[in-house]
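Loading example: each entry is read as two labelled lines plus one structure line.
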Amino acid sequence: MKLLEFQGKKLFKEYGIPVPQGIVIEKKEDLKDIDIPFPWVMKAQVLVGGRGKAGGIKFANNMEEAIKNFEELITMEIKGEKVRKVLIEEKLRIEKEYYLSFFIDRSSRKYLMMFSFEGGVDIEAMAEKVMKIYVNPLIGLQPYHLRKLPKEVREIAKKLFQLFIEKDCELAEINPLVISNGLAIAADSKIIIDNNSIYRHEDLPKEDIELTPLEREAKEKRIAFVQLEGNIGVIANGAGLTMATLDALNEFDGKGGVFLDLGGTDDPEKVKQAFELMAKAKPKVILLNLFGGITKCDTVAKGIIEFLQENKINCPVIARIKGMNEEKARQMLKEYVIPIESFKEAAKKAAELGG
Amino acid sequence: MAIWADENIRLLVQGITGHQGRFHTKAMMEFGTKIVAGVTPGKGGQEVHGVPVYDSVEEAMEMKPNASIVFVPAPFAKDAVIEALDAGIKLIVVITENIPFHDTMQFIHYAIYKKARIIGPNCPGIASPGKTKIGIFPNVIFKKGNIGVASRSGTLTYEIVNALSKEGLGQSTCVGLGGDPIIGSTFIDALKAFEKDDETHAIVLVGEIGGTAEEEAAEYIEANVSKPVYAYIAGRTAPPGKRMGHAGAIISGKKGTAESKIKAFEKAGVKVARFPHEIAKLIKNDKRI
């Protein structure tokens, strides 16, 4: 789960990492109560990258400019993400801009600290100028690691590492880490919290704003559900099989609209919930691709029938059912779905109906 | 031979009294796995399908287990794995899904220190047909033979293994490495073991978007693997930034795309299938086998 800049900065403050004086607001009326001296930096609060280039950061020298900026920012949509909040901060006198981050490195399976003397830009674009320091998760950050950094950022690095560990971060990034009047200040924040650990962080924001309303509903029901751009709803069991089904559709110029992974369940109630979600996404055609191993095909069929008896669904359902009790499932479903035996043919048919 | 798990496995089931633990204990026994003990704290003295249950791994060691499978819920999984490592168990298969990444990193590095192997987490386990199964794969898909399979996926692997078996292509060992970003055993670990295993004549890798494990595997294959390798990569149409069911299946920025993985494999001489069941066909048509 990604945090917005102001949420990340709140954590920074908690851990003693200096941040600019600032306040986050949603309404124009709140501008007049702000007692930060001009000039201001006004920053749209969104999760997507490239905010600056998209015009999501503005400066104001007086209230008139502030009002104009606010009205522009709050109605803005950056890469499809609506701006709901604006962070207003004192404008810092910038002497230097560094980059500092900790993240979980998949290849080495270690924590990776990255530092660069050139912050404020896309880190991937300057890969060769980045210092990389690997930290063993059993041992943690050591003083000698810190001595590789310039003196003025060592204390912040230590605190950022503590935050990174205690808040179960996938990523904790300060870009840029600004030197202003000789002091290091976190001018931006990017924090990603590991979703698996949310249960042990009561204090962190609950709402995952990155998700669509349907995705959020699915998350509450513990169903893996991703909305995509096409019009074919794919239901399969297992993430890999669901992805493979979407890929197969693409081979026949079909476009997946929903990724729905039933997971290891064959609880008819859960299957029913999955179909309810799928129906809400209004696909043009549904492709069910089931490989029953531990999951029994007939109990999945039972859930589908329960759903279809109570609800009218306005699109055809193509079903490719394989594995444990497949015959029984096919018999049960024959009035409700278009059965197709081969994976490839089922994808082809769904692509035709979707196109 | 087989890799990592053979007929000499004496298995401990951690979390044996839960729904999954019970169900799969029975299924593994039916496969032929020797299960010698189970552990659930507070449930010592019970039996599950005739298997004695202990309160701790230390106590269960009187049954001399040499491998463990973990069904313990995510918040307690790290504790369970470390308990097994401290008791001296050298092979631990972690089935549990949704374990916090920082917990996984700790028990994986502790396992490295203890010179033990972790498979998973968030994986279907390992099966060597005719010998043993430490996992949740359906029993019926397997056939004894000479193909080694390593995969980041569950059901997709069942689909592929099932197709292999139907074509008469049996397996030496199938290992599900897990769908998490941080896993105990990697493609490279599996390739190393399969290359050494006399019973394995060809290797199938099932990858997916996210991370660079496939690219690293491709480099390793080019330099070190003489046996033919085949692959399938799921997620060619997945959009960047979205987690596709598995915690590890996410394209971050420009990293982790299926395109980059397929390209790396093809460069290393690995044949890549467009559809999962076509792997069987690729092997059948290959004159090297």
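DSSP finds ten helices and 18 strands in chain A.
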